[in-house]
Amino acid sequence: MKSGVIIVGAGHGAGQIATSLRQFGYEGSITLIGEENYLPYQRPPLSKAWLAGDAGLDDVLFKPKGFWADYNITVMTGRRVTSIDRTTAHIVCDDGTRIPYTHLVLATGGRARRMNCPGEDLAGVHVLRTLDDANALNTAMKTGRKLVIVGGGYIGLEVAATARKRGLDVTVLEAETRVLARVAGTEISTFFERIHRQHGVEIITGALAQGFEGTNKLTGVCLNDGTLLGADIALVGIGLVANAELALNAGLACDSGIIVDALCRTEDAAIYAIGDVTRHPSTIYGRSLRLESVHNALEQAKTAAGAIVGREKPYNQVPWFWSDQYDIKLQIAGLSEGHDETSLRGDMSANAFAVFYFKGGVLIACDAVNAPAEYMAARMMIAKGTNPDRAALADLTVPMKEIMAAAISS
Ligand SMILES: Cc1cc2nc3c(=O)[nH]c(=O)nc-3n(C[C@H](O)[C@H](O)[C@H](O)COP(=O)(O)OP(=O)(O)OC[C@H]3O[C@@H](n4cnc5c(N)ncnc54)[C@H](O)[C@@H]3O)c2cc1C
To answer: Which pLDDT band, with edges at 50, 70 and 90, does 2 fall under?
Structure first.
């Protein structure tokens, strides 16, 4: 086989880098190799429209089916890459095939973290990372009545909202004292706990699940205080483990993710990595970040494609993310971790507000609930390292555009 760009993984980042390479005029061969049995697809709908039954396969595909052939991009599905031979610049697949590369891109994402506890393999216990996972959960929800979700993060809460829409009885177990504790401030946690309870979800915080009961099929979830919660479906939504083993076994530097520079290059000049699997430097936050977001996967893909064709444009963007639960759209700009001050704009009881997070007087993040103008302005203000006026932020009569202009010019 002729050498060209080999992309390991056929997810969001992989689909984008193949597309960007062609857009940037790359004429060599491009091959995507993915272990799942699907063309590149989008994961965000899996916990939302897909699970609600409002989307079909064509709606979640990253590009229409014919796109890949039209752009002369080879997509190999159902094929796992098992190792990288850096000495001869080949990858090795699970059927023993060796394929040469001029550039290799690792876009291997991550897998759902497991609890490694008794009963986790019982029928009825689910995770949600792939389309197959979503299909299995969807099937279970057709006959299931009681869903217990372990983990009050975004995926757990989105599934809770969808499951309520489908009429299931839902309990969310969160080990911390509040949901979304890892990713959002207390105002946002309090808000989402209220919204879910209003929709009939039981939320138990400070609850540590430690096992699953049942003989062949799940009948209950055990907590460390001895409580047994009856359930016929459980979802373990406790985060992601980066699929960094290929890089690690090939001797590339990893730190719970593959370490890349601002051009998404690993230590090996011929090997790039993009998306959820990477740890990249951020000058905005002065530390390295491993992000799990569509925006990060897409933008790193564009950066790496640019670097491969000689259009170097370092990646240093304000992270952003979104979550849809019921009729609430949460948009998150930046990272609030380490904040020492918050400022509230809007009315939490009206379900339209934004929380701005500061560190040392500088805006570092914003969580905007049904507040797109606040979110857009925050992205710009965070990128510029500004210190917007708190009184103006708290005053809804002062337009966000005005606040942003003043912050950027001062
Ligand atoms: C249910 C759900 C909801 C989400 N909602 C949102 C949201 O609302 N907003 C948002 O911004 N983000 C959301 N995300 C996160 C977002 O989907 C990810 O950040 C994004 O998919 C990352 O893209 P990626 O290309 O890095 O990895 P992935 O899309 O995970 O693709 C990696 C692919 O590589 C394959 N692979 C791994 N190892 C190998 C190997 N050795 N050989 C071959 N193939 C391999 C994997 O099987 C996988 O198909 C959500 C994720 C999930 C699961």
So the answer is: low
